[in-house]
Amino acid sequence: MKMNDIAVIIPCHNEEASIEMVINQFSEFVPSAQIYVYDNASTDNTASVARAAGAVVRTEPMKGKGNVIRRMFADVEADIYVMADGDGTYDASKCPEMVQKLVENQLDMVVGVREAVDVDGAYRKGHILGNWMLTYSVSFLFEQGFTDMLSGYRVMSRRFVKSFPVLSKGFEIETEMTVHALQVGASADEIVTPYYTRPEGSESKLSTYRDGLRILKMILLLFKEVKPFQFFGLFSLFFFIASVGLSMPLILTWIETGLVPRFPTAVLSMGLMVLSFFSLVSGVILDSVSRARLEEKRMRYLSYFAPSGEWK
User: Fold this and answer.
1) What is the DSSP letter of 192?
2) Which of 25, 38, 278, 307 is 20 to 30 A from 248 via CA?
3) Residue 47 to residue 57: CA distance in whole angstroms
């Protein structure tokens, strides 16, 4: 039986009003954990308040949640990582249960599925709808997924954290983490957790439409990278159908009269068929490249052991 060191990692940008409460709650429910607060270009007293509350405070000058998490995953050494936001919306009392589930089942990730305590105050309807649509999109494109893909409350193994090449810069980081877990076959589970309203004086940094579009863009980008044959195959099918649709009247006219009266249309149809062919070939080639990259990721992932035994 081995003991597992735990690190609570909290990305923060202007969370002076809530960060002390968050640190105190995690210190209470996971007293053996080392708490790290990464200040992301805050203009208030987030860093000094977190330091006074007993956390290890570090800074990341490049703004964006993805940039902060990339730095945290690279710098912090632990067996188990608990990631939560510094806005006081997540329930720290659920952390021991999430860690226990990770260790007992030797999982790589346990996601806290948000259940709003105050729907109007904590979880805006636009966010609920957007989260559902984006989560469903990932489940559809990658044939599996999570209930709450965009949750920022996660417990992760060292194996997952150190094998995860963070590319995102902003709030699309949770999407990238989800797709990476699905791609390498990381074992994961979920636990329903209460989701609270932000404390007074704390403001959300999430823009519903702007960040929603960035997440959607990331989903499409990851679909292209992970499943290039399907991605370019859709373009190939579209060009093929368009080409056939334009050429059929020309072919029928040629059979009847022996003439091709709309020569530009014939050229366009031929061009679309060429594009269809090249799209298909591109998908086949990039699919081989993607498989080679997946093998590298998988070998990197397998170079670490899963958490086991007990946690302290």
Assistant:
1) E
2) 278
3) 6
Distance CA 226, CA 85 (A): 28
Give 14-44 pLDDT, tens digit per residue. Answer: 898 889 999 999 999 999 899 999 999 888 8
Using alpha carbons, select from 197, 5, 4 the residue that is nearest to residue 91. 197
Contact 110, 155 (CB under 8 A): yes
- CA dihedral (241, 244, 247, 253) in degrees, to 10, reads -130
Helix residue spans in 85-147 (DSSP H): 95-104, 119-122, 125-142
pLDDT grade, residue 154 (50/70/90)? Answer: very high
Q: pLDDT at position 132, please?
A: 75
| Three-state secondary structure call for residue 18 | coil
Q: Which two tokens stand for residue 257?
A: 């009269």
Prediction pTM value: 0.83
Strands (E), the chain: 3-4, 6-12, 34-39, 56-59, 80-83, 109-116, 154-157, 188-195, 310-311
CATH number of 3-225: 3.90.550.10
> What are residue 115's DSSP bridge partners?
194
What 8-state DSSP symbol labels residue 4? E
Give the pLDDT of residue 8.
95
